[in-house]
Amino acid sequence: MTVFEEMAENGVIWQNGEFIDWADATTHVLTHGLHYGTGIFEGVRAYDTERGTAIFRWEEHLDRFYQSAKPYDMEIGHSREELTEATLGTLRRNDLESAYIRPIAYYGYHSLGVSPGDCPTDVVVAAWPWGAYLGEEALENGIKVKVSSWRKHASSQVPTNAKTTGLYVNSLLAGEEARRNGFAEAIVLNKEGNVAEGPGENVFLVRDGEIFTPGLSESILDGITRNTVIALAEERGYEVHDDVSISRGELNTADELFFSGSAAEVTPIRQVDNVTIGNGSRGPVTEELQGAFFDLVERRTDEHDDWFTYV
After folding, report:
1. Helix H segments across 76-196?
2. Per its UniProt record, what InterPro entries does this chain match (predicted)?
């Protein structure tokens, strides 16, 4: 039985201001967001910590949720406090100690012109158990990635710093191309041919003990886990260059590479295309930062307690 099948038996979802049975959380087939990708969302993790269940950087995710709605003139219609209580209630009612949380807002059912017109904005919060996104083994041994033939859309074409549902078609194409060719994930280049990001992850490169990650001008999402890794690295004395361009060739000559993301957490990359990165395993810098990340989110440290919302 899949996780979703289990949740459908007795789980609940918050939809437009009320808790409803998981199986009843439906939408019309002529919903605007289904046809045109006019939705925004977040992916957030809650961890089972030594201090109880805690949502990691909920306030920052909530900030981005509201910011993502702005380019689409989308009115969320619920306050931060309402969405916070909805999320806490979803975790409690589903008896989840650790979970992946999905807030989403989208233009709903009313008309099907490209303009959403008077379409309502539907807002939903769901949560379910979800382990390591790319697999537990990947966290230790790293993954093989393929540089995708699909390019990342430019910020001059669509708002790349908004987490928009429709834009993830680009991610799907890149990721599935990689998996069809025997790789776990993809790296997507931007229109200039420089490294942008993974389908759902930011990219970090380690060279000579320094850390590099593409800047926001490279058409990337301003990842919250990315910002966390940068903070943890700087606190440990690493020099971090977070506003650079990284060429495709630099991937091949990196000492270490790793992904970061709410789903992927901190996942090492051991191979790009047919090139082995470093010694073909998780590198020492990646291992240190990964350990610091999990110590943080599982609350084995007192650092950054303000980043957590306890359930």
Report:
1. 80-93, 136-141, 168-180
2. Aminotrans_IV, Aminotransferase-like, B_amino_transI, BCAT-like_C, BCAT-like_N, BCAT_family, Class-IV_PLP-Dep_Aminotrnsfr
Token pair listed for 263:
């789903």
62, amino acid identity: L
List 144, 146, 152, 163, catalytic entry: 163
* In CATH, 3-128 is 3.40.50.300: no
Distance CA 164, CA 34 (A): 12
Residue located via tokens 């990340």: 293
CB 289 within 8 A of CB 228: no
Contact 108, 148 (CB under 8 A): no
Asked whether the predicted pLDDT for residue 133 surpasses 90, the reply is no
Residue 235 identity (one-letter amino acid): E
Beta-carbon contacts of residue 274 (< 8 Å; ≥ 6 apart)? none
How far separated are the first and last CA of the chain, in Å rounded? 27
pLDDT tens column, 179-236: 999 999 999 999 999 999 999 999 999 999 999 999 999 999 999 999 999 999 999 9
Query: pLDDT tier at 170 (50, 70, 90 boundaries)?
Result: very high
- Structure-token pair, residue 13: 């979802």
> Does the annotation count 163 as an active-site position?
yes
Q: Which CATH architecture has domain 136-297?
A: Alpha-Beta Barrel (3.20)
Helices (H) and strands (E) in the chain, counts: 9, 17
Strand-strand pairing, 202-207 and 18-21: unpaired
